[in-house]
Write a structure and sequence with these properties.
Distance between the termini of chain A: 21 Å
Low-confidence stretches of chain A: none
Mean pLDDT of chain A: 97
Low-confidence stretches of chain B: none
Number of strands of chain A: 11
Number of helices of chain B: 0
Strand content of chain B: over 45%
Radius of gyration of chain A: 19 Å
Number of helices of chain A: 14
Order of helices and strands of chain B: EEEEE
Structural class of chain B: mainly beta
Radius of gyration of chain B: 12 Å
Largest interface: A-B, 35 and 28 residues
Oligomer: heterodimer
Strand content of chain A: 15-25%
Number of strands of chain B: 5
Helix content of chain B: under 10%
Strand order of the largest sheet of chain A: 1-7-4-2-3
Shape of chain B: globular
Distance between the termini of chain B: 27 Å
Mean pLDDT of chain B: 90
């Protein structure tokens, strides 16, 4: 069955991702929202809102504040408008987007603001690592597991099974940093060499520092409306998987992505071959390869070859992570999924300047929550 | 409680974690093993990184809810 989703994008905006020592979480969201409202004005969209959807992953732990929905709607000066706070681990930005799409498509709300952010860089890295590890099962944490540790287990298995070299893997970070060098909102805006990636410090063997996304502060805001605009949300999908990696059927792919993708493609009445540009969740470089395979862009085990052959670079047949991805744009965990949406909207509106993809009409985002236990896929089209 | 059992398993994949959470001493070895009934288990390694290889036979020790693996022989 083909479903027509009555949800369209209006203004979008974000802060630069990176270190913002002087700004609180609500300041970052305020700035992102200001940019989104400016974008509404530029494009001639209405900017009165009847609900706000807020996404943060671990604001209570990172900032010590609770009741985040009220904090944000108050800061934005939008009281007494209704506010919801959504959390789906590291896919929160995509989760809150889909919740807002449901609200608009239901007809109950007409204009909704979706705002997602995370404030992380003020804490010591070991403390941040511990907060982030809480998305894993209790059993895994009891054995000392962290996100990088489980990612490393998957990476080594993938490399062994599909004969991927460390050099091939490093090519992902090189591409992401190149794209990030063309993105004024990216945490890292400098290119890196293959040698620099391969000589960087080991975090969880075989993963090195340059295989891991950074800890970042940042916020993103997207306007959604039930009235027709130039960008439509055509397909949304979500999928879950068992919390513990040891309970999964595969160590080299993520079923939650496959489930989400199937739903999103069906709803949009599109296939993976029709996607012009995609943002996938590369918290760790090997995820980009696994994701592009789970989404059906490349056969299983061939995601690495596609990167090495340049098929996913800016002027390749299917540009992946034109923003620089989580790797270079940065990863304020609750905000990243919504930043992916913004990059696709900018691509569809031809607003990406040096990283613009020619004739981008259909774009896709894929977001991983926790260790791929709650994943989302969104398909957006220029209409 | 305090029960100990030993089981044979195969090492599916492993890592040496250098960046550890606050309350853990680095580095730690983590391995995903497969038991003879195809169950997978996350375990801590009691061995040297250089000795490890995907597919090798290991022995699993269980103490309460914690699992460790060591090389066979």
């Amino acid at each position: 069955m083909i479903t027509t989703v009555n949800a369209f994008i209006t203004g979008v905006g974000m802060t630069r991702f990176g270190k913002h020592p002087e700004q609180l979480l609500e300041d970052l969201i305020y700035d992102a929202t200001r940019h989104a409202l400016e974008s509404c004005e530029e494009h001639g969209f209405e900017s009165n809102y009847d609900a706000v959807f807020v996404g943060t992953m671990s604001a209570e732990e990172f900032t010590g504040d609770g009741n985040i929905g009220s904090l944000i709607v108050d800061k934005l000066g939008l009281v007494p408008v209704p506010v919801f706070r959504i959390e789906t681990a590291s896919s929160t930005g995509a989760g809150v987007f889909q919740a807002a799409v449901l609200a608009v498509a239901s007809g109950i709300y007409n204009n909704v603001l979706v705002a997602a952010g995370e404030k992380m860089t003020h804490l010591p890295t070991a403390q941040t690592t511990q907060i982030l590890a809480k998305v894993l099962s209790r059993n895994e944490r009891a054995h000392g597991a962290t996100m990088p540790a489980l990612s490393a287990l998957v990476t080594r298995k993938y490399m062994h099974r599909f004969n991927l070299s460390l050099e091939d893997l490093a090519a992902v970070a090189v591409k992401s940093h190149y794209n990030g060098s063309h993105n004024p909102f990216a945490h890292f805006q400098k290119e890196v060499t293959l040698e620099k990636v391969m000589e960087s410090r080991i975090v969880a063997a075989p993963l090195r520092v340059y295989d891991c996304s950074p800890i970042s502060d940042g916020a993103v805001t997207v306007g959604l409306t039930s009235k027709k605009s130039d960008v439509q949300v055509c397909g949304i999908g979500q999928g879950t998987d068992y919390l513990s990696l040891q309970d999964r059927s595969s160590l080299t792919s993520f079923n939650a992505t496959k489930t989400a993708a199937k739903k999103a493609f069906e709803m949009a009445n599109r296939t993976s071959r029709e996607i012009d540009v995609a943002e996938v969740h590369d918290a760790f470089t090997p995820f980009e390869l696994i994701n592009t395979e789970d989404l059906g862009f490349f056969p299983e085990g061939e995601g690495g070859k596609a990167v090495v052959e340049g098929r996913t670079k800016l002027n390749g047949e299917l540009p992946i992570n034109t923003s620089g991805g989580h790797k270079a744009r940065g990863h304020p965990v609750g905000a990243s999924g919504l930043a992916q949406i913004v990059e696709i909207v900018w691509q569809l509106r031809d607003e990406c300047d040096k990283r613009q993809v020619d004739n981008a009409r259909v774009g896709l985002t894929q977001s991983i929550g926790g260790f791929a236990s709650n994943n989302f896929v969104n398909i957006l089209e220029a209409v | 409680m305090g029960n100990r059992t030993k089981r044979a398993a195969k090492l599916l994949t492993f890592t040496v974690l250098h960046a550890v959470p606050e309350d853990v001493d680095a580095p730690i070895i983590l391995g995903m093993v497969e038991l003879t009934d195809s169950t997978k288990l996350l375990c801590n390694g009691r061995c040297q990184e250089q000795e490890l290889e995907i597919g090798q036979e290991v022995i699993i020790n269980q103490k309460d809810d914690k699992y460790t693996f060591e090389l066979k022989g």
